[in-house]
Amino acid sequence: MKYIFGNWKMYLDLGESVILANELAEEVFTDDKMEIAIFPTALAFSNVATIFSGTSVAVGPQDVAWQPKGAYTGGVSPLMYKDLGARYALVGHSERRHVFGETDEEVRKKVEACLDTGLIPVVCIGETKQEKDEGKREYRLKKQLMKVFENLNLNGGKIMVAYEPVWAIGTGDACNPLDADDIHGWIKLELKNYHDIEVPILYGGSVKPDNVIDYLRLETVDGVLVGNASTKTETFVPLIRAVEKIK
Ligand code: 13P
Description:
By secondary structure, the chain is an alpha/beta fold. It has a single domain (2-244), classed as Aldolase class I (TIM Barrel, Alpha-Beta Barrel), CATH 3.20.20.70. The protein has ten helices and eight strands. An eight-stranded parallel β-sheet has the order 3-2-1-8-7-6-5-4. The longest helix is centred in the C-terminal third of the chain and has 15 residues, at 177-191. It is globular and about 45 Å long. 1,3-dihydroxyacetonephosphate is lined by residues 7, 93, 164, 169-170, 204-207, 225-229. The site of 1,3-dihydroxyacetonephosphate has 14 residues, from strand 8.
């Protein structure tokens, strides 16, 4: 199975999200070896989920609160998203960590809340340019993984990891596929310290229609998490069509 996930971030308002979702819902994606999921804003979630209901496209939020319900201003819980049809949830995206100051401890709580609710958390990890240049990449990733996976009770649920190097996000400076292959292999080994189950690992960071196959050809790369290129039909549909051609 190859996963093509589109993170619309805060690029689209409600009207734009609805237009794009309708355009994508009109396309027919028939490859049963591919799972497509869209992560719209909280604002557009309900509308987009309704548009994709009954299609093969799954949906999920870009972030969740870790409490189910109550006096948590600004929060939306996994339970509430599940109720609207969410299957996945992004957790710990680098923009949440670096722009909004989310900590490893908060990421852990959010992952647990998703698992408790039956959402599949997509745990985003990645190192900064400075950490990479100083040779601290594995150290940073190891720490992020440990905080989430150590003594984590999956309760029979599923979990995924997205490797998104911070320096590759929105920069056009995509991670070299050979380098991604190495680091994905390392992450897969690292995860064996915690669980016996197969954890799909997605790559994210400047994925486009013309480089997507370079990643998905690799056995270590189970999917891609696409930002900017997923926010336009002209780029997201060709990206998916390119993936349909790999066999
Ligand atoms: P870009 O594809 O715009 O680099 O964003 C990647 C990303 O952050 C997906 O979550």
